[in-house]
Structures are given as structure tokens and as C-alpha cells.
């Protein structure tokens, strides 16, 4: 698992520098239940992400996984669905803008890749495409994550 | 006289809301979830009897969805009304809520209690619980810290509860004067209606403490 973590974090670091953005996080469903955690992060301000568990369908990651669609926030806390406390990773990392895409394993969305900024901004098609490409690359690591002890 | 009538009306509205929330929470937990559980058991039974692999896998998927729904409903019920409040008391209910809070926001909470815990009326324990809940939510929203403490100090006639964080703090006077302190005002009002008191102190870059004093009788 240590080697896998190193590989994934290297990808996250490269994404963070290439985009460039303030935060990169990967949320994944647990192996045996639908709850979602954030096992990998880059550019984090604190360790809160390690303790956050979101339910399927809740928070950005939960919504991206349950809908199998990307999600975009351009100016948190304006124009969001629900309460600001429904977005714990945005609060924990003081993110103002974020874009997240699903990570698919075995034909099902089992995770989410998120890039975040600590200032308001719009996301252009080029950035979105870049994130989709990195997501496809990261999906190749998912079998190891979900099967290795 | 008019003020007293206003206070009574306010107290009545809060109490009615809490009773309704409690009713919905219990209904979700004891009626709806029990029915869902029966349906999940039935789906598992049907799945075991199906030989067609495609149908079997579909029935399994449905049973899985039902299991998820049962968990969702149970958590929603606990979020609405913490059952432990009336069964195990305020400290246990806060410990239980703190775990949920840490899982949600990633902020670690230390709950400490000194002195012998006394039995509070439903109204008082609910008011104290809601104020603690509001204080913790404010920490998640504004304090920018990954750690907080809740300290209960039980006396013979009253209990003191301090919710402390070492986050970024704020200028309390400025916030109160600017009218952006509706949450704090609501916490004070809620406690005042049950004979308690709520004080707030905060210092920039040093953190915030919300102190509650509540008579036991």
C-alpha cells in the first residue's frame, strides 16, 4: 500500500503543479461499505481530510460518486445547493472553487478526483479535459486499492 | 407583562418544534426503518431462491440499496433527535454527537466531564445540547482549527459547560454590533428560556470559548 500511495501522490503532485491549483484530493469508497473517505491529498492546510467520512450521495465526493457526473463550485458559499456544512472538504481546506470528476472501477463510480482553489474562479474546458485525463490514469491504480491488503 | 408573554410564546414555539422534530425522528427510526428492515430481509430471502443469475444479481443490488437506505434513515433520525439524550444523559449524547461531528468535519473533539452528572429536565438537556451543537457547527464554519474541547463541570445546583477552540477567533464586540451574530443571540435566548445563561469570549488568533451555565432544578 505504501508504494501505491507514493504513486498516487506523485500523480496528485504533478496535477497540482500542472493545472496549477491549491489542493488536489482523491476520495474513495470504502472496500466493504458505501462510505467515502479522502485517503490522498496534496496541498492540504491541515489533517482534517484524514478524519472526514462522507456518506454516499453527500458532500462533493458523495454527489459525484452517486451521480457519476462531474461537479463544479466556482464561488463557495454562493449559489450552492443546501447548507455550507454540506461541503466539509471545502470548509476544512478553505476552498472557494472546486471541480471534481468521478473515478470509475469495474464500470461503477467508486471515487472522485477533486482540484480546489482558495479563491473564486471559473473552470475552462481545457482544465476540465486535463482533469478527466488524469482521472483515467488514476483509475488504473484503483484495482490495487480495492483488492490489495 | 408584554415581554413575559413574548417570552412564553417564544418558549412555546421552541418546545413545539422540538417535540415535532422528536416525533418525526422516532417515527423514522421505529416505524419506517422497521418496515424497510423487513423488506430488506424479504429481498435477501427472494435473492436466495432465484436461480437466474441476472435476476439474482438484480435482487442483490436491490437488497444493498435497501441496506444503504436503512443506514441513511437511521443517521437522519439521530441527526434530528439524539435518542441517547433521554436514555443516557447529556454527556453521553454529546460524546456520541462529537464522534459524528469529527467524521463530518474532521475536527477532533475532547469531551471531559467532572463532578457527578445530574438528571436534567428534557427541556434543559435539549437546550444545552442544541447550544453545544450550534457552537461546534460555528467552529467548523469559522474557527479554522482541527481541535476543540467540551468541558462539563457538574455542581450541586448547576452545570457549567465550556466549548473551547484555539482557532482564529474574532472581535466579539464588532460582530455583536454589526448584527451578524444571529446564531449567538439564538443560543443565548434558547438558554435564557430554560433559566440558563450563555456567554461568549473570543480573541483574535487565540480562539473562542462559549460558556453555558444551567441550573439543574
Could you give a quick summary of the protein structure above?
Chain A has helices spanning 2-18, 48-51, 59-67, 88-92, 125-139, 142-147; strands at 23-29, 36-42, 53-54, 71-73, 97-105, 108-117. Chain A has 149 residues and is an alpha+beta fold. Chain B has 217 residues and is α+β, with helices and mostly antiparallel strands.
Could you walk me through the main structural features you see in this protein, from its secondary elements to its overall organization?
- The complex is a heterodimer of chains A (149) and B (217).
- With 149 residues, chain A is of the alpha+beta class.
- Chain A has helices at 2-18, 48-51, 59-67, 88-92, 125-139, 142-147; strands at 23-29, 36-42, 53-54, 71-73, 97-105, 108-117.
- Chain A contains six helices and six strands; from the N terminus they run αββαβαβαββαα.
- A six-stranded antiparallel β-sheet of chain A has the order 3-2-1-6-5-4, sandwiched between helices.
- In chain A, a hairpin with a 2-residue loop joins β5 (97-105) and β6 (108-117).
- The mean pLDDT of chain A is 91.
- In chain B, α1 packs antiparallel against α2 (53-80).
- Chain B is elongated, with a radius of gyration of 22 Å.
- Chain B has helices at 2-49, 53-80, 84-87, 90-105, 122-143, 172-178, 182-192; strands at residues 108-114, 147-154, 158-165, 197-203, 207-215.
- Chain B has seven helices and five strands; from the N terminus they run ααααβαββααββ.
- Chain B is an alpha+beta fold and 217 residues long.
- The relative contact order of chain B is 0.10.
- The chains are: A alpha+beta (149), B alpha+beta (217).
- Chain B: InterPro entries: HATPase_C_sf, HATPase_dom, His_kinase_dom, Sensor_HK_TwoCompSys, Sig_transdc_His_kin-like_C.
- Chain B: This is histidine kinase.
- Chain B: It comes from Thalassobacillus cyri.
- Chain B: It is an enzyme of class 2 (transferase).
Lay out the secondary structure.
The complex is a heterodimer of chains A (149) and B (217).
Chain A (H helix, E strand, L loop, with lengths): L1 H17 L4 E7 L6 E7 L5 H4 L1 E2 L4 H9 L3 E3 L14 H5 L4 E9 L2 E10 L7 H15 L2 H6 L2
Antiparallel strand pairs in A: 1-2, 1-6, 2-3, 4-5, 5-6
Chain B lengths: L1 H48 L3 H28 L3 H4 L2 H16 L2 E7 L7 H22 L3 E8 L3 E8 L6 H7 L3 H11 L4 E7 L3 E9 L2
Parallel strand pairs in B: 1-2
Antiparallel strand pairs in B: 2-3, 3-5, 4-5
Helix pairs in contact in B: 1-2, 4-5, 5-7
Amino acid at each position: 500500500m505504501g508504494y501505491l500511495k507514493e504513486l498516487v501522490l506523485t500523480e496528485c503532485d504533478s496535477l497540482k503543479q500542472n493545472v496549477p491549483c491549491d489542493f488536489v484530493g482523491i476520495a474513495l469508497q470504502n472496500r466493504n461499505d458505501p462510505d467515502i473517505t479522502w485517503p490522498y491529498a496534496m496541498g492540504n492546510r491541515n489533517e482534517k481530510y484524514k478524519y472526514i467520512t462522507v456518506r454516499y450521495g453527500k458532500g462533493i465526493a458523495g454527489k459525484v460518486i452517486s451521480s457519476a457526473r462531474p461537479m463544479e463550485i466556482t464561488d463557495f458559499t454562493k449559489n450552492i445547493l443546501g447548507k455550507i456544512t454540506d461541503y466539509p472538504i471545502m470548509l476544512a481546506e478553505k476552498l472557494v472553487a472546486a471541480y471534481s470528476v468521478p473515478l470509475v472501477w469495474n464500470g461503477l463510480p467508486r471515487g472522485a478526483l477533486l482540484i480546489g482553489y482558495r479563491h473564486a474562479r471559473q473552470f475552462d474546458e481545457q482544465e476540465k479535459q486535463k482533469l478527466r485525463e488524469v482521472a483515467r490514469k488514476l483509475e488504473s491504480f484503483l484495482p490495487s486499492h480495492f483488492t490489495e491488503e | 407583562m408584554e415581554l413575559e408573554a413574548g417570552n412564553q410564546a417564544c418558549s412555546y414555539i421552541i418546545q413545539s418544534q422540538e417535540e415535532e422534530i422528536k416525533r418525526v425522528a422516532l417515527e423514522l427510526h421505529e416505524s419506517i426503518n422497521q418496515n424497510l428492515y423487513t423488506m430488506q430481509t424479504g429481498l435477501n430471502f427472494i435473492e436466495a431462491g432465484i436461480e437466474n443469475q441476472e435476476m439474482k444479481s438484480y435482487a442483490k443490488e436491490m437488497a444493498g440499496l435497501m441496506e444503504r437506505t436503512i443506514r441513511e434513515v437511521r443517521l437522519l433520525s439521530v441527526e434530528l433527535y439524539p435518542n441517547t439524550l433521554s436514555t443516557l444523559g447529556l454527556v453521553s449524547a454529546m460524546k456520541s454527537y462529537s464522534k459524528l461531528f469529527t467524521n463530518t468535519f474532521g475536527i477532533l473533539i475532547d469531551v471531559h466531564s467532572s463532578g457527578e452528572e445530574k438528571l436534567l429536565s428534557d427541556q434543559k438537556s435539549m437546550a444545552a445540547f442544541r447550544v453545544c451543537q450550534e457552537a461546534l457547527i460555528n467552529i467548523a464554519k469559522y474557527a479554522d482549527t482541527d481541535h476543540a474541547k467540551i468541558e462539563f463541570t457538574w455542581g450541586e445546583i448547576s452545570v457549567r459547560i465550556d466549548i473551547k477552540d484555539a482557532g482564529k477567533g474574532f472581535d466579539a464586540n464588532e460582530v455583536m454590533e454589526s448584527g451578524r451574530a444571529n446564531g449567538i443571540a439564538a443560543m443565548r435566548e434558547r438558554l435564557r428560556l430554560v433559566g440558563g445563561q450563555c456567554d461568549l469570549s473570543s480573541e483574535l488568533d487565540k480562539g473562542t470559548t462559549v460558556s453555558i451555565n444551567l441550573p439543574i432544578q
